[in-house]
Design brief:
- The chain is mainly α.
- It has one domain.
- The chain has 3 helices and no strands.
- α1 runs antiparallel to α2.
- About 0% of the residues are buried.
């Protein structure tokens, strides 16, 4: 006598397994997005904080080397903290389907509003 499992139970088990796999994939993609945003933020703002620390601790030093390093870090930090504001939408666009869809909808809405479609004459 073999044990018979009802087909409804098998279908429910498949749905549960697929559902948990989808949840795991969603959580891992969200985690990857968050980690990439945090790493980008840290990389982009680290030179600014190094420049601030150098300004505090090298105050009053007349070393040409420190002045040159300070100037280089100042320019690099300015570029990188500007880049920090630009990189987040790029990361979200690359990694998030939901963000891409919302962006497309906003572009369509903007085009619709700018063309004046639907206005009465």
């Amino acid at each position: 006598m073999a044990l018979q499992i009802p087909t409804k139970a098998i279908k429910k088990a498949k749905v549960l397994i697929l559902g948990s796999l989808i949840i795991i994939l969603l959580v891992s993609s969200i985690l990857l997005l968050l980690v990439s945003v945090v790493v980008a933020f840290f990389v982009c703002w680290a030179p600014f904080h190094c420049q601030r620390l150098l300004a505090i601790y090298a105050q009053g030093t007349k070393s040409r080397t420190l002045v040159a390093i300070y100037d280089i870090i100042t320019h690099a930090s300015g570029i990188l903290y500007f880049l920090s504001t630009c990189i987040n939408p790029v990361l979200y666009n690359i990694m998030s389907n939901k963000f891409r869809q919302a962006f497309k909808v906003s572009q369509i809405t903007l085009r619709f509003m700018l063309t004046g479609y639907g206005e009465t004459m």
